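Pipeline run #58 for the internal structure catalog. This entry was flagged by the ingest filter as a single-chain record with no existing model, so it goes straight to prediction. Upstream metadata was stripped on purpose; only the residue string is passed forward. Reviewer on rotation: M.T. Logging verbosity set to normal.
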Amino acid sequence: MNKKVTIYTDGACSCNPGPGGWGAILMYKDTMKEISGYAEVTTNNQMELTAVIKALEMLKSPCDVELYSDSAYVVNAFTEDWITKWVMNGFRTSNKKPVQNVELWKRLLELTNVHNVTWIKVKGHADNKYNNRCDELATGEIAKNRKD
């Protein structure tokens, strides 16, 4: 029987592209762990993907995951089945253009083959305290690494 884990993620970018941060909260039973990171030159979508990847990489065995994100880009890729079409088309979109952030998508796909992930879209910057905390972690990384 797989462990049931809840994950919240968020990514942020200043000047898209520019300095970016990501944050995630992992919850298992009574334990909650916050993780975050920074990239000097990135995009908002790359940070959204990185947050999910880093969170899933923390799991040491296959888990049943409820993953909450305010990124339609990430969530819809799975709930609208874009990812399956991309794979079938050699990571090309319906209009034959290369899928952006392909290496991140490939890594995320590897991780979703290990874990049973249920994707849940939340409204960003609203009343979800965990999503708001992930946003604080992500923007905090940008602020902490700012070179003014």
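catalog note: The CA atoms of residues 142 and 148 lie 12 Å apart.
catalog note: The chain has a mean pLDDT of 95.
status: ready for reviewer M.T.
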